Amino acid sequence: MAEDIVRFTIDGVVVEGILGQSVIEACDVAGIYIPRLCHHPELQPSGNCRVCTCKINGRNSAACVTPATHGMVIENATPQLTADRRAVIEMLFVEGNHPCPYCVASGDCELQALGYRLGMVAPLQPYQWPGRKIDATHPDVYLDHDRCILCSRCIRASRMEDGKTVFGFAGRGIAMHLNIDAEGGLGDTQMAAIDKAARVCPVACIVIKRESYRVPNGARRFDTAPIGSDIEARRKAPLP
Amino acid sequence: MHQTAHTGGGDIVPAARPMTAEDSAAIEGFLAAVGGDRTRLLDVLQDAQRQFGHVGDEAVQAIAAGLGMHPVEVEDTLSFYAFLDQMPRGRFRIRLSKTPISLMKGAQQIARAFEQALDIAIGETSYDRLFTLEWTSDIGMADQEPAALVNGMVLTSLTPIDVPAIVASLRQCAHASDQRPFQVAPSRQGMPAHTAMRTSLVHAGPLLSGPCDQAEGIHAALAHTPDQVIEEITRSKLRGRGGAGFPTGMKWRLTRKAVGSDHYVVCNADEGEPGTFKDRVLLSEFPDLVFDGMTVAGYALGARHGILYLRGEYSYLWDALQAVLASRRSAGVLGHDICGRAGFDFDIRIQLGAGAYICGEESSLLESLEGKRGAPRDRPPFPTERGYLQQPTAIDNVETFACAARIIGKGADWFTGFGTKESTGTKLMSVSGDCAVPGVYEVAFGMTVNELLDLVGAVDAHYVQVSGPSGQAVAPKDFGRRLAYEDLSSGGSTMIFGPDRDVLDTALQFSEFFVAESCGWCTPCRVGTTLLKQGMAKLVAGRATAGDLAQMDSLGQTVMRMSRCGLGQSAPNPILTTMRNFPELYEARLSPAPFTPRTPLHDALRDAVVVQDREPAIAEGT
Predict the structure, then answer these.
(1) A91 vs B378: CB contact, 8 Å cut-off?
(2) ipTM attached to this prediction
(3) Is B561 on the interface with A (CB under 8 A)?
(4) How close does chain A come to B115, measured CA to CA in Å?
(5) CB of A172 within 8 Å of any CB in chain B?
(6) Which residue of A has its CA nearest to B77?
(7) What integer is the mean pLDDT of A22-34?
(8) Using a CB-CB distance cutoff of 8 angstroms, which residues of chain B are in contact with residue A34?
(9) Which of A25, A31, A40 is nearest to A13 (CA)?
(10) What are phi and psi of A234, to 5 degrees?
(11) Any alpha helices (H) in B433-502, and if so which ranges?
(12) Predicted structure pTM score
């Protein structure tokens, strides 16, 4: 079994992972949090957001798509990487429309939570104010494209987990957007509220109707603890 | 936006007609031609585009059903490529090349002339549905700008007075044939003679001089074992000519060693870097040399399949290249039992691209070859291990294959006799801009920028953009540097800017190019390229402050560090390298005082004050 163990260091801490794990998976198990946004532990990684970029053996690589190998030397929580990650989060804030104070996901939103965790104050870049439409054609699920950060979680979940391929990308560059597998909108697809694709959105783009305020503001996931706390709680030894 | 008074005019989207039984049969034909293989989706979409002029919703449904895909997956590919349309456009697509070089040669005047002659603005379609006028990224004609593509026909060295004749000729062409209109390439009849493409080769060196035998390389290769062929390539120190400079021998060895059910040889002819056109020269004047090199690679790697990925902008080379392949097959140097060697089977197919610079990035190219959007892959695994269809694949530049053919034919020692220790052989430089004789120059590695400028007759270069916008702006203080992998590495694009050219304008145009060509997959490149362009536009307009400049610098570096592939990692180069080399030009354009809004907050809030019937609790004077 010993050959299946890969040992590497991240910010000087030795981590033992299993061959075949990505860097982010191995670190998650070890209780070391690498900030991430598009990555979801139950989905194939896709490397869209680049927030989990680490300096791996001297080169910047996304931890979600980089296989853990023996002897890797990884930098994670350096001032430079934190600043770059914050800049990427800012880009997502100005690319879409993200009015946290009245957004249904506030407190439960991974984008917002990463903004806090990475120390974002207010975006320094100009807001793009895209004009995107809401898709409310589905009885149980609505789509607020304003919030979409193109993380592809729903695309991956719908294709691989639900076997429905309700979502896809369309267009390219800054015009790339989430596309629906029906001309008439989400209501014309096989989408169901119990689908994986409906439950993995990190923001408030895919929202289950009539569920939004069951947990009140102030009592939500990231209202009580910063994002990544659950992973860090797995850590056995105290931080050096 | 467009203030010209219109009489006829345009700017309508022509209505799509419902599909007929004949249309459905045509789509069935396209699907049958690829055997219902969904990795050939790009071919099916291009066939439909040529047949209907666009690929509408009904066609998408039919193609999706035929390939066992979801329409959303078909649209993913369809919506990605610039040369594929979801909505109808004019029968003649006039695409004007928009690059700093075309603009310095008068592309704006050509655009105005077309707008006048067609009575439409850029981006519009004429009411008679005959014409759509658009800008497009570099079309590989930097030595013959201003240039345009019209349904795959190239027009070069345009002047405004050519335009009426061109439009008349196209109208005549439309008159003469209305059967399957989008398949008809316009005839050159009536086009001004000087608008035909000319040869670009100005200076041939050892690579392109002397006889070019159909199969010199493969004959020589067959006298050795595949391992010996790879050893010879390794000994020649040949490095990738696309710009990255990866050692070719090592790439071939890794690919040969990798385990897979099939091995592939892919030639990257998606020559999209603005300012380069040497692959067009190789493919139009030395195609046998390129195919010979691919066949040598096929032998060395034990591959049976070769693919040439030809950029959509070069579709006019299609027929000639197919004819060359056919003649090679009949000569027995392609296909089964090549050169009489039993069991040595290797054939080449051509995949036509559809307008996407990113597909020159090797992993995006593979995605595109598999019928998908050209989004790069994360590495590892590298293509040598898992490339096309997840099989071991060697992807090399057109020029690299030409070099490989010569090396095997003439020997590694011959090759290492040229160039420097680290950069052996010669390099094809595509030279354009402010010089006496633009064109392709084959020069030995190690030549200084100054020597190249003398060779091409550039007397007072203000700066040189080496290796295209993704390369760097080189100022006169660095003209003594050498063109070689160990110093100024270059894929060959060499754009020369004289003293009258605006460095900042050029940097802005390059940043617009990256906005147009970013694939969108990753955040830093998708959003960052747009933010950089906006920052640069603000600076060029004289509204940026020193703070804005520092912020643009910082943003550019984040985009370089965080982007997924080479496109994003080099997209900030035009801004960052000019910022370093010409700081005084940036400073001179800064707004002296911080930006102050013309609308006081009180005025901005006036409507809200009326609605709420109360004044905001803020201090006066803000």
Answers:
(1) no
(2) 0.97
(3) yes
(4) 26
(5) yes
(6) A170
(7) 97
(8) none
(9) A31
(10) -75, -15
(11) 449-456
(12) 0.94
Report the C-alpha gap between B419 and B278 in whole angstroms.
19
Confidence of residue A54 (pLDDT cuts 50, 70, 90): very high
Is A240 part of a structural domain of the chain? no
C-beta atoms of A53 and B561 within 8 A: yes
Taken as a whole, chain B contains a residue count of 622
Say if A185 is an interface residue toward chain B (CB within 8 Å). Answer: no
- Contacts A–B by Cβ distance under 8 A: 123
- Mean pLDDT value across chain B: 93
> What's residue A49's pLDDT?
98
Tally of structural domains, chain A: 2
Q: Report residue B19 CA to chain centroid gap.
A: 33
**Per residue, what are the HEC states of chain A?**
CHHHEEEEEECCEEEEEECCCEHHHHHHHHCCCCCCCCCCCCCCCCCCCCCCEEEECCEEEECCCCECCCCCEEECCCHHHHHHHHHHHHHHHHHCCCCHHHCCCCCCCHHHHHHHHCCCCCCCCCCCCCCCCEECCCCCEEEEHHHCCCCCHHHHHHHHHCCCCCEEEECCHHHCEEEECCCCCHHHCCCCCCCHHHCCCCCCCEEECCCCCCCCCCCCHHHHCCCCHHHHCCCCCCCC
Could you read off the pLDDT of B146-202 as tens digits, one per residue?
999 999 899 999 999 999 999 999 998 887 766 556 666 788 888 999 999 999 999
Q: Out of A46, A77, A108, pick the residue that ends a domain.
A: A77
**Structure confidence at residue B17 (pLDDT):** 77
Q: Which residues touch B148 (CB under 8 Å, ≥6 apart)?
A: B94, B95, B96, B97, B110, B139, B154, B155, B158
Instruction: Please give the share of chain B, as a percent, with pLDDT higher than 70.
Output: 95
Please name the residues between 99 and 128 in chain A that touch chain B, using a CB distance below 8 Å: 124-126, 128
Is the CB of B564 less than 8 angstroms away from the CB of A166?
no
- Please determine, for residue B620, whether its predicted confidence score (pLDDT) is greater than 90: no
Q: Domain limits at A25? A: 2-77
> B518 contacts in A (CB within 8 Å)?
172-174
B191 touches chain A (CB under 8 A): no
A182 interaction partners in chain B (CB closer than 8 Å): 71
Rg (CA), chain A: 19
Q: In chain B, what residues touch A175 (CB-CB under 8 Å)?
A: 520
Structure tokens at B236: 């020649």
Integer Cα distance of B350 and B94 in angstroms: 25
Residues of B with Cβ-Cβ distance to A170 under 8 angstroms: 72, 75-76, 79
Shortest CA gap A214–chain B (Å): 31
Q: How far is A173 from chain B (nearest CA, A)?
A: 4
pLDDT in tens, B454-486: 999 999 999 999 999 999 999 999 999 999 999
The two tokens of residue A28 are 């998650």
- Among A61, A126, A170, the residue with its CB nearest the CB of B79 is A170
CA distance B520 to A36: 18
Helix ranges restricted to H, B370-462: 398-410, 412-416, 449-456
Searching chain A, which residue's CA lies closest to the CA of residue B71? Answer: A181
Domains in chain B, CATH or no CATH each: 21-78 (no CATH), 92-195 (3.40.30.10), 202-416 (3.40.50.11540), 426-497 (3.10.20.600), 503-588 (1.20.1440.230)
Whether residue A91 and residue B527 make contact (CB cut-off 8 A), yes or no, is yes
- Tens digits of per-residue pLDDT, B242-293? 988 999 999 999 999 999 999 999 999 999 999 999 999 999 999 999 999 9
Domain membership of residue A23 (yes or no) is yes
Residue A83 burial class via C-beta count within 10 angstroms: exposed 0-12, middle 13-18, buried 19 and up? middle
Q: Is residue A187 part of a domain?
A: yes
Q: Which residue has the tokens 């390939």?
A: B67
B57 part of contact set with chain A, CB < 8 Å: yes
Query: For B372-393, what is each residue's pLDDT tens digit?
Result: 999 999 989 999 999 999 999 9
